[in-house]
């Protein structure tokens, strides 16, 4: 598999450990779904539908998966329950692949986009600032110079937390006084990064989920100001979602994708939850690639998402 080239033994172990609660929950439910059955029939499909929905895959995505399996049953005439695990892996991988899977090297920066600018959005408490810190660590580890911009100027704790991550990782953080214009912070960050030939810029934004118009105006202003320094900035708008909130994460994705042009997703806190199925549903429903998944508190526990590896870990032996 192509993903294997990027996956070390350590990464696989981290992924397996991080998804263990979800995997345990899914397999327990699957065992009940096929109990006493030797073939996939309507009862098994009904039970499977319940398994997927209660694993936070989401109703729409669940129905797509069930429909695909029904088509295979109709085509093959007979489908044994012993084959269900393999078929689920194949169908879910196909759904994730359709949304696009980043085939580049982990934490690589395009040569023609320097500095590479990432604007990070998401509500408070989802692990947004921690994700930024881990991203900065990974980019610096690869040899890139990184600048962070503390554009969440509405919470002192947000600025302090980002500065702490900057100190921990060893990268500069551009900030202003509390209550400053977030767009001004973004402008200063890009200007400084550009002047110092930085490779990567990551901008933190306020985690407030207020009305769509206010959110849209604020994020649009930040993007427009950054474009004055670099015409094609930001290159990524990364939405961070807390995987442990299940269906709440779907609602946040709806709100933020309506407010700004999100083109990447990061789903955090998967290690502490049995709701890892939310990755499948969000990836499928929003047709926005999941770029990162958070699997723990350690610096190395933020992984670039590989759909095939994720499904293999979730449904593997």
The chain-level structural class is alpha/beta
Integer average pLDDT = 86
Task: Kindly state the percentage of residues in helix.
Answer: 40-55%
Distance between the termini: 17 Å
Round the Cα radius of gyration to an integer and report it.
21 Å
Record the strand order, biggest sheet.
Answer: 3-2-4-1-5-6-7-8
Number of helices: 12
Give a summary of the structure in a few sentences.
With 317 residues, the chain is of the alpha/beta class. It has helices spanning 9-18, 20-33, 42-54, 59-76, 84-98, 128-141, 156-169, 182-195, 212-229, 247-259, 278-286, 307-315, and strands spanning 116-121, 146-150, 173-174, 200-204, 236-242, 264-268, 290-294, 302-304.
Descriptive notes:
The protein is of the alpha/beta class. It has twelve helices and eight strands. α10 links the parallel β5 and β6 (264-268). The model is unreliable at 1-5 (pLDDT under 50).
Structural key phrases:
51% helix; 8-stranded mixed sheet
